[in-house]
């Protein structure tokens, strides 16, 4: 069985995510966040260590998508 933890995000961001996932295969904000984090982690595990520049690029991309303020 998988254990879970809670991650808090601002309500306005959660509302934006809810609007963004309408009509997609994601059924909740949690589904999307799990997908994004899993994708980032898997991508960087395959490449090795995540550099500061790569982290900044990922953060910039997420900010451009409206997931980070």
From TrEMBL:
InterPro entries associated with the record: Arc_rbn_hlx_hlx, Ribbon_hlx_hlx
Any single GO BP term: regulation of DNA-templated transcription
Source species, domain of life: Archaea
Matching Gene3D superfamilies: Met repressor-like
Protein's name according to its UniProt entry: Ribbon-helix-helix protein, CopG family
Species in which this protein is naturally found: Halosimplex pelagicum
